[in-house]
Design brief:
- By secondary structure, this protein is α/β, with parallel strands linked by helices.
- Helices cover 44% and strands 9% of the residues.
- The strands form two sheets. Strands 1-2-11-10-8-9 form a six-stranded mixed β-sheet, with helices on both faces. A five-stranded parallel β-sheet has the order 4-3-5-6-7, with helices on both faces.
- The structure holds 6-O-phosphono-beta-D-fructofuranose.
Length: 565
């Protein structure tokens, strides 16, 4: 394991010098200097077309970045992840979301406790699953996938009925963070696959995540308790938002069924929770405590991080919406990208290159943000999904050994679909003072073709990256476009389940690449804990007149709230 801080490596210094050399060279200069630039800097793999040529770099830059990846041992870390080593050393866990999409018959086991994944691994077995080193996790994965498919088919066909014998018409996913963003984003992306002709009976799918009562209130509007199924998703089954929303949903269900039964609490109402609530969790005890029959629980494992969990049972509501075959295609797309990341040389490895290019801007060209601009309304929540993926993984200031990092880590990830963004914030990207590297994601075919909309959409997609890179001269400085604004073009044939799977895995491994180079553990998230603890302490203070013992600003804000509530 390389323990030299990355900014003290030779390759890092080479990149610092190289950045200096390129300081005054524009993207247009690069194109003028090298006729073969596009061929050298664009790649097609795993069904994706990725063109890095409109970036502020040369093929030599990529060589130097690949050398940096070599010096920090990226491929060794990658293999350790795929092999089930306990690379999440702060929680003593393996990181095996890639096992979730492996085909049946593959074999992956989790490194036994006390393995040699690095001398920084803690010996605390608190979160360990029993007997890990003996178990082929791929077998377990496929058992759960089969359980999910049986259940999804029953719901989709109308065979699974609610307490009053009616088939399910609406599925409501209750979860937050990784237990919401993945299935919610993917459901929106693949909505056409939940409709005829891809799917038989169209079900309504909704997502409740926020503790704000508006979310549960609005999400339940118009739904019929007799035909609504809740999927409560929580890895820990201890997340306050999810449990509070699930309790309110249970009350809504019982009230609605009681009303439907003419005010009588009959036998059907009493057994209703078992028919209208299923759980997805790693924690069977807490699921049972909540009152959900563990026979209706779909499990996953401690080696699946929340933000990496959409391919696990966390995707149950997505599978119900698009059907098990489409869900398998989604997993196959991820697996295809996993295999690409695992085997392609780094110089042609799409996730590795994406990570290296993003790192180039963050650490050598001073960019503070990374925009993701999908030219697809179906991908409207993809930037939000990537915010959790990248920022919860790599938004850290200490390395794996607990040393303070002297370099920047994760950029702020943000974005909105085009063309909407063009009429809102693109002004700053074209003419502002900041460098905003942007990923443009587009598709050859429309998911929902209407007239010539798609060609118009894609004309804008191409126009924007050209305008950003090359700009336009003008005598009037207000109307001048300086160009030299970096973009990466990512294209696929269509936004189908396989492509979405490939895209998700692309960004997962991009995130992994960046984390390894910075030397951080991308798989814990202690930064979310402090606020949670303090909210738990503050909640009872809001309804009492106890003395407040916070800082003066917080004391005054709580007092203001108390006086007006
Ligand atoms: O608070 C952050 C977090 O732990 C995320 O990492 C996670 O995806 C989310 O909360 C939800 O956690 P759970 O699935 O355990 O409810």
């Amino acid at each position: 394991m390389n323990i030299t801080p990355v900014d003290q490596t030779e390759s890092w210094q080479d990149l610092v010098d190289h950045a200096q050399e390129l300081n005054d060279v524009t993207i247009a200069d690069h194109f003028a200097a090298d006729q073969a630039r596009v061929e050298k800097l664009s790649h097609q793999a795993a069904g994706l077309y990725v063109d890095f040529s409109k970036n502020r770099l040369t093929p030599q830059t990529l060589d130097l970045l690949v050398a940096l990846a070599g010096e920090v041992g990226l491929t060794g870390h990658r293999d350790a992840m795929f092999d089930g080593r306990r690379i999440n050393q702060t929680e003593n866990r393996a990181v095996l979301h890639t096992a979730l999409r492996r085909p049946s018959g593959d074999v992956v086991t989790v490194e036994p406790i006390g393995g040699d994944s690095g001398d920084e691994i803690s010996e605390d077995p608190a979160h360990d699953s029993a007997n890990d080193s003996e178990t082929n996790v791929v077998d377990e994965v496929h058992e759960v996938l089969d359980q999910m498919a049986t259940f999804a088919n029953r719901v989709r066909s109308g065979d699974w009925t609610g307490a009053t014998g009616k088939p399910i018409e609406a599925v409501v996913n209750i979860g937050i963070g990784g237990s919401d963003l993945g299935p919610m984003m993917a459901h929106r992306a693949l909505r056409p696959y939940g409709r005829p002709p891809h799917s038989g009976r169209e079900l309504e799918t909704r997502f409740i995540s926020n503790i704000d009562p508006a979310d549960v209130f609005e999400s339940l509007l118009g739904l019929d308790p007799e035909t609504t199924l809740f999927v409560v998703v929580s890895k820990t089954f201890g997340t306050i938002e999810t449990l509070t929303n699930a309790r309110s949903a249970r009350q809504w269900l019982l009230d609605g069924l009681t009303e439907a039964a003419g005010g009588e609490v009959d036998a059907a109402v009493e057994g209703a929770v078992a028919l209208h609530f299923v759980a997805v969790s790693t924690n069977a005890e807490r699921v049972a405590e909540f009152g959900i029959d563990t026979a209706n629980m779909f499990r996953f494992w401690d080696w699946v991080g929340g933000r990496y969990s959409v391919a696990s049972a966390v995707g149950l509501s997505l599978m119900i919406a698009i059907g098990p075959d489409n869900f398998r295609a989604f997993l196959d797309g991820m697996h295809e990208m996993d295999e690409h990341f695992r085997h392609a040389p780094l110089a042609e490895n799409l996730p590795a290159l994406m990570g290296l290019v993003s790192l180039w801007y963050t650490n050598f060209l001073g960019a503070e943000t990374q925009a993701v601009l999908p030219y697809s309304d179906h991908l409207s929540r993809f930037p939000a999904y990537l915010q959790q993926l990248e920022m919860e993984s790599n938004g850290k200031g200490v390395d794996r050994l607990g040393r303070t990092l002297n370099i920047d880590t994760c950029p702020v990830v943000w974005g909105e679909p085009g063309t909407n963004g063009q009429h809102a914030f693109y002004q700053l990207i074209h003419q502002g003072t900041r460098t905003v590297p942007a990923d443009f994601i587009g598709f050859v075919h429309a998911s929902d073709p209407v007239g010539n909309h798609h060609d118009l959409l894609m004309a804008n997609f191409f126009a924007q990256t050209e305008a950003l890179a090359f700009g336009r001269e003008h005598d009037d400085p207000q109307r001048r476009f300086s160009g030299n604004r970096p973009t990466t073009t990512i294209m696929a044939d269509r936004l189908d389940p396989t492509t979405l799977g490939r895209l998700i895995a692309l960004y997962e491994h991009k995130t992994f690449t960046m984390g390894v180079i910075w030397g951080i553990n991308s798989f814990d998230q202690f930064g979310v804990e402090l606020g949670k603890e303090m909210a738990t302490a503050i909640e009872p203070e809001l309804t009492s007149d106890s003395e407040l013992d916070h800082d003066p600003s917080t004391n005054q804000a709580i007092a203001h709230y108390r006086s007006r509530r």
